[in-house]
Amino acid sequence: MSKNIYVGNLSWSTTDADLHAMFSQYGQVSSAHVIEDRETGRSRGFGFVEMDDEGARKSIQALNGTDCQGRNLKVNEAQPRESRSDSRSRY
């Protein structure tokens, strides 16, 4: 079983490889992705890491609030994305 982890407050220069290396210290990482803006391709300052349950628990405890490239990381278990309603449909 694996868990999806939210990683927020990332530096603009953080890469997928940086995330993978950071979390692989705590367990088997299945995937690591920094989310980019669709139009500019620039990092949006957050990402997701998928890894084994035990590694996820350890990495959340170890990395939440720590400094990475001058930014204090926000690391927690990712929550399911809420469904979006079309904002234009109200009128």
From TrEMBL:
Residues 64-91 are annotated as: Disordered. It holds the Pfam family RRM_1. It comes from the Bacteria. This is RNA recognition motif. (A.k.a. RRM, RBD, or RNP domain). SMART domains: RRM. InterPro entries: Nucleotide-bd_a/b_plait_sf, RBD_domain_sf, RRM2_NsCP33-like, RRM_dom. Keywords: RNA-binding. Residues 3-80 form the RRM domain. GO terms for molecular function: RNA binding. Residues 79-91 have a biased composition (Basic and acidic residues).
